[in-house]
# Entry
Amino acid sequence: MSRTASAPGADAHVPPRAELASVNAAIGRVLRWGVLLAAALIVAGVALFVAHGGTRAILFSPVGVPAGSERDPHSLRGVLDGLLPPQPAAVTDAGLLLLMITPVVSVAISVVAFAARRDWLYVAISGFVFAMLMVGFAIGRA
Amino acid sequence: MFIEIFVLSVAAGVLGALLGLGGGIVIVPGLTLLIGLPIRYAVGASIVSVIATSSGAAAAYVRGGIANLRIAIALEVATTVGALSGAFLAGHVSPRWLYVVFGLLLAYSAVALLGRLTVEVPGEVPRDPLAERLRFAGEYDDHALGQRVPYTATAVVPGGVMMYVAGLLSGLLGIGSGSFKVLAMDIIMRLPMKVSTATSNFMIGVTAAASAGVYFARGDIHPLVAAPVALGVLAGAWGGTHVMLRLRNTTIRKLFIPVLAVTAIEMIIRGFHV
# Structure
């Protein structure tokens, strides 16, 4: 039997879209909320920069960029320490970090979403990808 | 400065969402040549741009059923293993030759794509048992054609090899390599162009997130540079997804070819300057 592109998945009991709808919805929600929360934190951080130093604080010239960067937190602990009381750089960085972990969280959620569908092949595949990301983080920290 | 970076980033976000790329091709030369920032902050900002494009665009594409999650996750196996091998190899291979070789590969692909300019949907593709086993078949609503387009993938193993190479380059050179991912899906696996770019959009964020922590810890991600980049790219990507849904596959490919050519030239030039 030759399968044509006009009828892929014709032997499946459910159409492909309905089949993955729950996983798509879960990942879509993670991405949307991750992005919205990150953007809100970044806007708050920029607002704090302006509140502390006026618009000159963000309208610097390229030459002025390195100034102050020594005081930027470069670690998770540094960022968390700068949140209370809120420091402009720490709040902005918190938003940027949230943005950075959003794709990782979406992979973690896909493991859960595929498990809920008892799609063990894809639980294994997405679990492997998540493990690879964790190995990458571990190497990056070393 | 803030405003200029924001405007540049909106453009990067629109382009990235349309073509499945991370916007590094706009961000790095834009920030260094136009705005005059040190390359270090430009590269850090381009990582932020890749993740912002990816999450911003994929939020719409995943919910709209255009990005194929199974294909994305399964191919991420190849890209993440590639990225890790790249991290281990870094320092043992000369980036100079990598930039030149892969720049030439991209240039060749741009020419190869010219032959597919008029292909709107792939139609019937050779059967691939692995694609069936992994249940890669899907369908999507094409707003430009006004119909649901069913599709399936072919040549999964060669496509996976290309994805491994894309991951390897991300790990070695710190580039998003979205163009390689789109090429793997469009030319090798014969997926519809929109499915390729939307799926690539989801994938590039996952690949970039793996190395973003390193850049942050090194202090390359400057908050006042990365903030307008993140906000601009998110706004641009959000707008870009609305445009992309209405475009024809052939139009997206026509936009992709010149961008590919510019990326190829940028990589070759960087190869001679590293």
Summary: Confidence is low (pLDDT under 50) at residues 1-17, 66-70 of chain A. The radius of gyration of chain A is 22 Å. Chain A touches chain B through 72 residues (CB under 8 Å). Residues 16-53 of chain A form the longest helix (38 residues).
